[in-house]
Amino acid sequence: MRALLSVSDKSNLLDFARRLHQHNVELIASGGTARVLLHAGLPVTTVEQLTGSPEILEGRVKTLHPIIHAGILARDTDEDRADLERINARMIDLVVVNLYPFQKTVAQKYVTLRDAIEHIDIGGVALIRAAAKNYERVAVVCDPCDYDLVANDIARNGGVSLETREVLALKAFAHTAAYDAAIRDYLVGIQSHDSPIFTLTLHKVQELRYGENPHQQAALFSMNNGCNGPLGGRLLQGKELSYNNLLDLDAAWRAVVHFDQPAVAIVKHLSPCGIACADELYKAYTAAFNCDTTSAFGGVIASNWEVDAATVEAMGDLFIECIVAPGFSDEAKDMLSRRKNCRLLEIEDPAATAGPDYEYRSITGGILRQTVDRGDPASARWRVVTQSQPSDDEMRALQFAWKACQHVRSNAIVIAHESQGVLATVGIGGGQPNRVDCVKIAAKRAGRKARNAVLASDAFFPFPDGIHEAAKAGVRAIVQPGGAMRDADVIAAADAAGIAMIFTGVRHFRH
Fold first, then answer.
1. Which domains does the chain have, with CATH numbers?
2. Which one is catalytic: 171, 203, 258, 269?
3. Known catalytic residue at 21
4. Could you tell me the pLDDT band of residue 248, with boundaries at 50, 70 and 90?
């Protein structure tokens, strides 16, 4: 049995090579890999010795040679063996290759285009693809994590089993596809135009018990190969998160992570039940919970602040599916450990989980891609369009409500107020096909708390009816994008009710 080794990542290389040697595997190696093995006293044939050709072009060409590739691609047939004999080549049975670290190189702050180009692997990709193509005879290893699997197979069977070769070949093709996608993404990023072909590389984090319903299969994938776990965080306690848990946690986390003050969001079925900010986290939790105490049962909670004992105490005996936060105090963890069915997800660095610039949704026969809505663009300009001007207190509440509104399903309406330094939603309406119904839902949930509160709408009011409902509830100020054909009628309705209204010029639909 003969093995070709040519690796950039030399993790665990020596132990693996020694095990191969112990099982009478002949070792062939290129460049730096050969030097490492020879220095360790292992018998190695260098690629130059095998091919009779030196490395050229400053190492750009090492393994691109017929003796190498014929040895890998040859099938176990009389015809192929005759061809190998004609060029004085022999079969290679195991290819151990990993690639120049292109992704790591371009992630560096001051990397140049020249450096990036030099870290595009050519020979390694060719070796991996050739070996994977001929998996019926050849085993390919592109991940040091698979060294034990292969060495154990050889120890048991005298070679690598077909089942293992199939698994390794699939992994190899996925590896080269991801590598090419990383190169494409980098070049698109430094150029002024996008590519007409888009490749999305995902790495499986875990199988899920089921999808939205028990009869649906599901799995969690990450865009980051080094992802620790769900949402890039770490599950501290509780059973595995479900498909629905993950959706709700993501929605809740997005709703709090961009607030500067301690903030809490409670989410159920992708809909916020309450969002609040305060100088202390337990106050934010209490206000968020009081927005909709019925819906909060069985929901998930997100905090952008370390969860402390006072906040856990405020939760009382509420049934909570999951809590996500940057951390949990020792006392809080001890208290929460008694809630066996409550999962705790810790995301230590919220800034690191801001996510990519794009988000994706599947539709029948395709994928939709859009840039992530991270709030108002720098060009946004708020302007008061009514005779009444919002007070300073109302302006703070409007700014909070506007940010909270962006995390409610369209048509989104948020009624909020400030009380004793706590900014909180008091009524939320969303997910309905018309805006006036959402105003009615939000007002009904707010009840008397709507009096002298403010209201945010993610898109314009197409008719004055939404303003009329807000006025009946006692709302004193409104923020909305504006831009409707009947803006003049909407403004007139606000003026008649003595409501201050701001146009932002920016819409924040969340379908």
1. 2-190 (3.40.50.1380), 234-353 (3.40.140.20), 383-503 (3.40.140.20)
2. 269
3. no
4. very high
